[in-house]
Specification:
single chain; 7-stranded mixed β-sheet; 26% strand; Metallo-beta-lactamase, Chain A; 14 strands
């Protein structure tokens, strides 16, 4: 199994998971051209992409969907409320034959993989994160949540790999150029995880199974990769385990062999 962050940040997010035969994307917030280019840059094949699982309808997670519907036959997996919100946002209709509707808290068998979407607190209509079990491994992609809920912690336990949001440094955000209303939104319980909240989350889910953590969805304005890494590295070091720690960025793909 392989994981790649094709892009990660406020300008667009796209994760990819591959088993050598099929690729599942989680979110498509960059252009279709960028998705293709970054997959090819990792020597991943675009024709192996079989599906796109969507977390929620914000633009930095769905930007490429209109082109994906025109140029591919990929299956779109999302909750019915999110599918409808995408249609409204993009002014399109997603054919039902292209969709697998998901229910938070209910697992879906997709191409032999077990996808488990679960609700997260974010200012979208029906936001979810994902736990995925495939080829004997368990992976989590958990972003866009205002605080580390008990439910998210439960789904993240015993993972082999976790891509986890570490969006902002609280002091940088408060002192930065964003308008007060946007700062309040990000800091709210339906906003984004800070570096400190990310570290708290890791403290609650570390297990002997966990081998790799990749920090994602970092703000270019309100965070610094070194600060995000430092906050999480301290927690991982205290665990006494051997957990690799990576930081994904907006500008280039990051591949992890699982």
């Amino acid at each position: 199994m392989r994981y790649a962050s094709l892009a990660s940040g406020s300008k667009g997010n796209c994760h990819a998971i591959a088993d050598g035969e099929r690729i599942l994307l989680i979110d498509a917030g960059i252009s279709f051209l960028q998705i293709r280019s970054r997959l090819e840059g990792l020597n991943w094949r675009l024709d192996q992409v079989r599906g796109l699982a969507v977390t929620h309808e914000h633009t930095d997670h769905i930007n490429a969907i209109p082109v994906i519907l025109k140029k591919t036959d990929w299956t779109i997996l999302a909750t019915p409320n999110t599918l409808r919100a995408i249609e409204i946002s993009k002014g399109l209709e997603i054919p039902k034959r292209r969709c697998i509707p998901l229910t938070p808290g209910r697992s879906e068998n997709w191409e032999g993989w077990l996808l488990s979407p679960f609700a997260v607190p974010h200012d979208a209509v029906d936001p979810v994160a994902y736990r995925i079990e495939a080829a004997g491994l368990s992976l989590g992609v958990i972003t866009d949540l205002g605080y580390p809920t008990a439910l998210a912690v439960e789904y993240a336990r015993s993972l082999d790999f976790l891509a986890l949001e570490s969006n902002h440094d609280i002091a940088m955000l408060r002192e930065g150029p964003y308008p007060p209303m946007l700062k309040a939104r990000i800091l709210s319980r339906v906003g984004h995880l800070s570096n400190e909240a990310c570290a708290e989350f890791l403290q609650n889910i570390i297990s002997p199974a966990l081998k790799n953590v990749t920090l994602v969805h970092l703000s270019e304005q309100n965070n610094d990769p070194a600060m995000a890494r430092l906050a999480s590295a301290g927690v991982l070091a205290q665990s006494g385990g051997d957990v690799a720690l990576g930081v994904a960025t907006q500008g280039e793909a990051l591949e992890i062999l699982l």
